[in-house]
Amino acid sequence: MKLSFSKKFEAIDLQGLSEASVQAKPSDVKRILNTGKANSLEDFASLLSPAAEPYLETMCRLSQAATLKHFGKTIRMFAPLYLSNECVNVCRYCGFSRHNDIPRITLSLEEVDQEASLLHQQGFRSILLVAGEHPKYVSNGYVESVVQRLSKNFPSIALELGPLEASGYAPLVNAGCEALVVYQETYNENTYRSLHTAGPKKHFNWRMDTAERAYQAGFRRLGIGALFGLHDWRQEAIALASHAQHLTRNCWKAQVSISLPRMRPAAGEFEQVEFLPNHQFVQLIAALRLFISKAGITLSTREPAALRDGLIALGITSMSAGSSTEPGGYSAFDETSFTPKDEQPGEQFHIADERPPAVVAEAIAKAGYEPVWKDFDQSLLADPSVSEPMESSDYEISKIESLKSLYPVSIK
Ligand code: SF4
Looking at the domain assignment, is residue 163 inside a domain? Predict the structure, then answer.
């Protein structure tokens, strides 16, 4: 019988790998880059090292080539649709944490239709349904009803909800969901316990094995992630990479994608513990691509516009755009600009890239990529040319203004 990731995880020496990463030598990095990929978790850790920073441009070029090979010149577009901000958990970093004094909203089915219709008008056909963890929504068929209503107009529906048993996921798959997203938040168990002090989310291993239960239930896409800012970023990255590798090997019929959200301001005003600087964020994206070439990498509106634009060609495969993180938030957007008219007091966190979806799509096209609103696989099948590697002259990382400022040292 296959080991679940939580069992495998017990044997990973995160602290040791993180320390080895900090001590890696330029010769270690050169050896890995000469092979064009990271062949082990140790290699991946070396690519996160200070010694790898001067090789960021080389890492980005290799990352770009691997991404083009597996995904073509496309960026999948999606938008979150928040159904409810009611939550029984205490998560100290989240605006929806149950002790926070925010307006609590759960959309009626008619309100969901209204929000979905606005996203549909913007061009989205791929949506991520998000809700706090509350028995009211997972046990009474609410989410199932939402999915049944929306599946006619949205061929790709993903869920981000409190973890369930595989048997609880099956009706949602049957209703039309294809993807499940669940972030471990932090892979450090002590930190996890100190941040999740009440509610079902307290169970570290139960959460860690959620993606595997979702796979058993039939989800075709599995999304995992860590919330960077809660613990040592190298340890989080190494654990996340190992988790993604485990899923790609054991849930091989599903597309695995990785998210790297960094902390944003939210109600509760939690102070992040460990900041992941921009240049190391880019280094992490490139290192992930060199370790797991076939995993999707998602970039959300938590990141500022200039950085997102610079990252389009460097390894990411999907982007959200024009996001509201408040239930009912799109209905309060300005009709012409599709941006918030006012503060959204019930939001989960405040986004950084507030551009309307069409402007983000333009930026993707300007970078030479195709924004894919509808179905990733169909787009690739329809136009084989998108899989052709770019000529090296098409792409010069050192000319991307928004990334130049990230380099802490000269580029080799
Ligand atoms: S992170 Fe999720 S589970 Fe925790 S308070 Fe926020 S919505 Fe609830």
Answer: yes
